[in-house]
Amino acid sequence: MNEELRPTTRRAVKTPSIARHGKLKRRSAWKTIATIVASTLAVVLVSGVSVGAYAAMDLVQTAKPTVKLESEKVLEGVPDIGAIDGGVNLLVIGSDSRQGQGMAFGDPDEETAVLNDVTMLLHISQDHSHVEVISFPRDMLVSVPGTCVDPDDPSDTLSALSSVKINTVLSYGGAENGGMDCVVKTVEQLVGVTIPFAGVVQFLGVAGLSEAIGGVDVCVAEPIEDEYTGTFLEAGPHTLSGMAALQFLRTRHGVGDGSDLGRISNQQVFMSSLARKVQSDGTLADPVKLFGIAKAVLSNMQLSSSLGNIPMLVSIAKAMQDVDLSKIAFIQYPTSYVDGGGAVAPNWLADSVNQALQQDVPVVLPTVQDADFASETDPNAAPPADPAAPTDAADPAAPADPAAPAGPPAAALPDGVSGQTAADVRCSSGRTLDDQ
């Protein structure tokens, strides 16, 4: 059995009280779908605007039963007409469960697990001018609050825990919510923001989405060879859909440094390309294509009850549909390896990401990033503009329009924080078998 298909079945148990660490202020399934899920949710939500009422209701009925989040109480009284009033925090949880996924990923009765190997936070700003998508490494150590439901006694809660890998948190909590609320509470505690929206997605939703959208174009800077996922791609451009797209997202051994951190960078290459395609080829104006995308995803995902109604989907869609690609930032939550390896922990750079989220300010990604995780620039991308060339920009000496909104100042993230915007065209940094 290959490594990618060897999760360990986990069961949350009631544990004795363990001293938990304080919130780490110093210092975004599974491992494989991180790249498209955040943009996927944007597409799914936009579809609520474009398809008819009957089709939209069909989408909701296709989805799995919803889950009530404790944090949803902040939404009481929020109007459900037009774009949502204010910002949105939505947690996308990628489950590696094989249940309902056929035999393509192993025997669902023997090889399934309850692990959130992808955890991504989608943040839409209060003024709807920028979006941040934070990817949390699956092996990142976190503290789990003592408010998660005990699966053996739903009237009780589990003890607080410290130094727990984030990808195990989905296994905590009662059977009724499958641990979704526990993952939400853990990320809320980590980054310091309230998250009233969430969804859990499985493998086939990713494959179906990539097919419904007509494939996603990716650039590979160096050959990718991964026997574990069966991913073999020559250097150059590729259009991936279905299982090929899914395996591209799953590959770890074939990209970057062979770790989950390298995989996140690879996934961001895919996700930014997906966002560009959605905005450039008329997808947002094609009700048939949007319906196919939405149904492919919703049939393989479980939503929080806050997302399980058409007006809210429409409201969030309207908040996202006009965001400029350069204002959509995909960020890898900053971590460092702990002593002995095998896990990572948030480092001092993480506080800059937390502060940007808490203060709801757009981010400016550093031009210098960790070389192990940053992808190479696409050699076929358009060259940068000549700074000496004339432009249509307004005279810098002209006074600013006093009626124009100033907008919040951007937060420049420090060197070492890895990520890219949806406008950045980059290539995946591959690895051959000789490098592994």
From TrEMBL:
By sequence similarity, the record places it as follows: Belongs to the LytR/CpsA/Psr (LCP) family.
Q: Where is the Cell envelope-related transcriptional attenuator domain?
A: 116-279
Give the Low complexity compositional bias ranges. Answer: 388-415
Segments crossing the lipid bilayer = 33-57
**InterPro entries the record matches:** LytR/CpsA/Psr_CW_biosynth, LytR_CpsA_psr
Q: Which Gene3D superfamilies match?
A: LCP protein
Keywords from UniProt, A to Z, are: Membrane, Transmembrane, Transmembrane helix
The lineage, from the top, is: Bacteria, Bacillati, Actinomycetota, Actinomycetes, Micrococcales
To which species is this protein native?
Answer: Agromyces protaetiae
Q: What is this protein called?
A: LytR family transcriptional regulator
Q: Where is this region: Disordered?
A: 374-436
Alphabetized Pfam families for the sequence: LytR_cpsA_psr
